[in-house]
Structures are given as C-alpha cells and as structure tokens.
Amino acid sequence: MTTAVQTTVRPTRFRVLIAVMLFITVVINYLDRSNLSIAMPAIAGELDLSKAEQGLLLSAFGWTYAALQLPGGWLVDKIPPRLLYPACLILWSLATFFMGVIGGFVALIALRLMVGVFEAPAYPINSKIATVWFPERERATAIGFYTSGQFIGLALLTPVLSWLQAMLSWHWVFIATGLVGILWAVLWYAKYREPRESRANEAEVELIRSGGGLVDLARERQERARITKADLATVLGSRKLWGIYFGQFCLTSTLWFFLTWFPTYLVEYREMDYIKSGFLASLPFIAALVGVLASGVLSDFLVRRGVSLGAARKGPIITGLLLSTVMVGAGFTDSTALVIVILSVAFFGNGLASITWSLVSALAPRRLLGLTGGMFNFIGNLSSIATPIVIGLIVTDDSFAPGFAYMTVITVAGILSYVFLVGKVERVAERSEMVVS
Q1: Are 203 and 305 in a shared domain?
Q2: What is the DSSP letter of 79?
Q3: Whether residues 174 and 44 fall in one domain
Q4: Mind telling me which residue stretches traverse the membrane in this protein (predicted)?
C-alpha cells in the first residue's frame, strides 16, 4: 500500500513560484534601467543638456554593464543566486536612490555607471536559475514569462512614474524605484532556494532533472577558481555562440531605443506632455508583452509537438526581427497615431524575438553557463552604449528619421546572424572535450 501511494505522488509546482520571483526581479531591473529615460526631458531642461550630452548620460549605464558581463558571469558560476542576487539588488537600488538625491550632470553619470556595475550579473543569474529549475520543454515558457517583466513593468508603471514626476519632481522617479528594489532584495533572500533545498517534492525535482534541468548544478564543485584560456577559447571559438552573441546585439538595439530615446522622442518631436506621453509610451511595451508571452508558449508548444529545438527556438526570433524592421516607416509619417501603431508592431516583434536566452541554455557548455551568459550579455549590451550615442549624434532637431533607419539596418543584420551563423541548436562542447574526442 505504501509503495502504491509513493508511486502516485504528484509533482509539486514550486518552480512556478521561482518563475514569479524572476518576473518581479526583471520588472524592478528594467524600471531601474528605464527610469532615466522618463526623467530625461525634465533633467535636460533643468541642466540645459544638448542632444549629445543626453546621449552620453543615457549610455552611461551601458559602459559598465557591458564591460562587467564577463566578471559578472564568473561570479554567477561561483556564488549561489540566493546570495548574489539580493546583494546586487541592494547595491544597484542604492545607486538608483541616490540619483534622486544628488543632482548634477557628473554625479548622475557616476551613479548611472554604478547601476550598470551592479546589474551586470542579473541576466546570467536568470539564465542559470532557468536552466536549474525548468525542464527543456518548459524553459522557453519560463524565460518568456520572466522576460515579459521588462515589458509589463514598463507598460503599466511608465504612466505611474510620469505622473509621479509631474506631481512632485523627477527626483522621486529614482527615489521610489530605488526603495522598491531594496525591499525586494530582502524578500528574495528569504524565499529563494535551490531545487533540492526547496519545498519542491522529489517528484518535481525528478521531473525537472529527467527533462534536462540541471538540478544538481549548485552541488557540483567547480575545480577552477578563475577563467582559464581554455574557457575563453570555448566561449569565443564557436560559430554558433557568435551567432547568438551578434544576434543579441541587434535585438537589444531596438530595446535600448525604447529604454532611452523613446520618451524624449514623444515629448520633443511629437510635442506631448508628460502624462499623455506616459500613456502613449506604454502601448509599444504592451505590444512587446504580448509578443514575448506568445513567443515562449509557442516555442515550447513546438518542442512538445516534436519540432526540432532549432526551429522551435529560432523561428519566433527570426519572425520577430522581421516584424521589427517596420520601424523604418515611422520616419515617413507625420501622424502620431500611425507612429505609435508602427512602433507597437516593431516592439511586438522585439518581444516575439526575446526568448534568445533559451538558446544560451541550449547551446552553452554545461560548466560554463555563467561565462557564456556573460559573454552573450556583454556583446548584446554593447548596444546599450551604441544606441543612445549613435541616435544622439545622427538625429537632428527637426527629424528623428535617421534614428529609425539605423535601427532597421541593425535589425536586418540580426536576422542574417541567426540564419547563417547559429546553425543546428545543440550544446557546445568545451575545448578540452573536443580535443579528447
């Protein structure tokens, strides 16, 4: 009788809570990336900043965020998410908070650089947790769900932050988001656990493990305490990995346009007030939210139906990038309503394509998940430097069309990268393994 009961134990669904926790963290993460764009028109007016100076300030986050992806990935491979994530959350939230307390152009740049430093490990941590906690057939859905946090947070909370700025001042945009991050860091530390240390029962742990989830990754001793030449040769010597690296740069270029210049575009080029622009600015993020949720569900559905992993993962990405190219049309119309429609379609496509971390989970060498994720995020987020600066330099006081043209060219390059470089989706062997074989 006991044996019969044991064999019918249903798996718990503790991994659902993990997905929700990642979702909330991503919401906070992206609010702290985008809050400067909301406040930028007010800051530029108060500090009398030129377009080039605005582009420099908007890009400051990206300099340190991109530069520290490899050290961040190394930390992810060495420090458990339960400790590393709340530490990073508190530190970047404090830097955000003080952006609302300390004024001045130089001080804002310095604090923005610090936000980039401490957010650097965030997405490699997300990728590692998804690889540990979810079987392959659920992973894209989980990644799509928590990635949607970057869009739903911006869609719903951009109007709130715009209202807060209009009622009080731009300083409170940073103070409020900083305080929320500190509170969530405490809750993360209290609730997050690895699969075998959590309330997930053995049936759920076995379901994850048998489905390709690396549930015991945290228990595996890492023999080397530093990044070796062989490690770097592995993550830099694969055509497949370079395909997703460059593809990510192209994909996130569109995202960084919306995170930096989009509110300024609506206020200065479309002459909208803060409240109206806040609500209109939310529409493309809502479209992106729909895209990213549909992408993860569709991709995992295709995997369960027997479609190859490569087609199931790359199909939504390439389709989404194709849709994003319609952005070029925004430079050829004077209708604000039509511009919002065009940009919503483009950002829906960006959301549809944003399950790219599922390819990191599928391609990265088992022992180098953090390092591969760090390299992926490093090259991808060079766009956080390039996009604000390039757009600030090429747009004029009268026309934003050159900015839209630049974004379209970059998107087409991303499509070519996924088509011609990535190839068959399978885990890349470490250089030492290739030598042995």
Answers
A1: no
A2: S
A3: yes
A4: 12-31, 83-111, 143-164, 170-190, 241-259, 279-303, 315-332, 338-363, 375-395, 401-421
